[in-house]
Amino acid sequence: MANIIGSPERYIQGRGVLKELCKHVERVGKAPFILVSASGKKRVEAPIAESAKEHNTPLTYEVFGGECSRTEINRLIKAYEASGSDVIVGIGGGKIHDTAKAVAHYTDSPVVIVPTIAATDAPCSALSVIYTDDGVFEEYLFLPKSPNIVLVDIDIISKAPARLLVSGMGDALATYFEARACKQSDSLNFLGGKSTVTSMAIARLCYDTLLADGQKAMLSVKAGSCSKALETIVEANTYLSGIGFESCGIAAAHAIHNGFTAIEETHHYYHGEKVAIGTLSQLVLENASKAELDEVYGFCLDIGLPTTLSDLGIQKVDRDQLMQVAELACAPNDTMGNMPFAVTPQMVCDAIIGADAFGRYYKEQRAKA
Questions:
Q1: Where would a tag sit more exposed on the chain, N or C end, judged by fewer CB atoms within 10 A?
Q2: Which residues of the sequence carry a binding annotation for glycerol (predicted)?
């Protein structure tokens, strides 16, 4: 079995680089089909228009319907084919990225990903997470190649709410721990191979960068500042986490996140916020050391990630409800099987309850300090 690592053809990050969009797009296409939300379009239209004027680039905008579902993907395939465009540009958050990648796959077109937030590690991956029209996890769509270009404008991201950056750190937090579990179980990564020394080092670097600069980056965004710490965290959330999860694999943390999507109370919370609880639950499932729990719970509290079920809107710990989460997390088409030991829904349910109890304990200890 081969060791495989994947990445975008080109990753571009810097201040004001959105004004260079059309210059970079020219490498793969001449007529961009830009998928963006209505509110996102207002944030990016001016610099893109400046770039299009300089390079004489025709633009077609399409407003995203809000969910990366089969219905939306099929609608956009028709719109793209009717537009005469030859490259898809997904601008926004994770669901727009995943939808743009899926449409590009089904139309055999190049794709450029432009995050306006650093809230997930979706931009760099050859993967789309498909949901139902109601937002419940349905399946992973594995793609044959990574995006052609990922372009990250720090100026745009620094103006997004701090909660979105923190959510991205919640998603990135899972990268190392899931990579470690997959390494221990000798599981395949998303590319159909085993992790490389490089991909494991990237996953660890992702975690170390979060610990070093996460709180500084969060405070920077809250203050309206574009700091060096913010730049490193955007790279960790976007590139290090994206390469790390895809080239190493995922395990319990994301499977538990997928289980939580079935609980209506959690629908108002971001992907990374639910993944954070999934990561804490995975650590409890693994019986992680007290030192590791201290470090991870402390980090979550420092930057404002959820540490208890009530932080996800679940005010009452209902074992029957959590068993539904656990059963979904252990579904055959999910990634719980990448853990280095056999896992049952009962074990997952107990781990979630345990993680919630630890979260309340750490909050109480901090309040007393």
A1: C
A2: 121, 171, 254, 271
